[in-house]
TrEMBL record:
Taxonomic placement: Bacteria, Pseudomonadati, Pseudomonadota, Betaproteobacteria, Burkholderiales
Gene3D superfamilies: Nitrile hydratase alpha /Thiocyanate hydrolase gamma (3.90.330.10)
Source organism of the structure: Paraburkholderia aspalathi
Protein name, as recorded: NHLP leader peptide domain-containing protein
Domain of life: Bacteria
Entry-linked InterPro entries: CN_Hdrase_a/SCN_Hdrase_g_sf (IPR036648), TOMM_pelo (IPR022513)
Length: 104
């Protein structure tokens, strides 16, 4: 699988995992809204680079948000972006399986 396809698959998987957790766990949802970087880092068990900015937008019944994904063509030949480094770091040991934190 080409590296770009692999990275896109990992990005989608991260997004799906975080959104699934937010829909199932109200405490995580609040943390994701209030401190998204911390919530995602905790969920994935990784550190998110300082140059990666995370924005969470809460949809409402009368709003639709469309996310236009970043591509390597957007980099203008720059070195790896913080997000690319994050995906590479997560992808090297990332399991796409979702394991919710079980509260005792």
């Amino acid at each position: 699988m080409p590296e770009t396809d692999r990275n896109e698959l990992i990005r989608r998987s991260i997004n799906e995992r975080v959104l699934r957790r937010a829909s199932e766990d109200e405490e995580f949802r609040r943390l994701l809204i209030d401190n998204p970087k911390s919530a995602i880092a905790r969920e994935l068990g990784i550190d998110i680079p300082d140059d990666v900015h995370v924005t969470v937008i809460r949809e409402t019944a009368d709003q639709l948000f469309v996310i236009v994904p970043w591509t390597s063509a957007d980099s203008d030949g720059q070195v790896l972006s913080g997000i690319e480094r994050l995906v590479s770091r997560v992808g090297s040991g990332y399991s796409m399986a979702y394991t919710p934190n079980v509260k005792s």
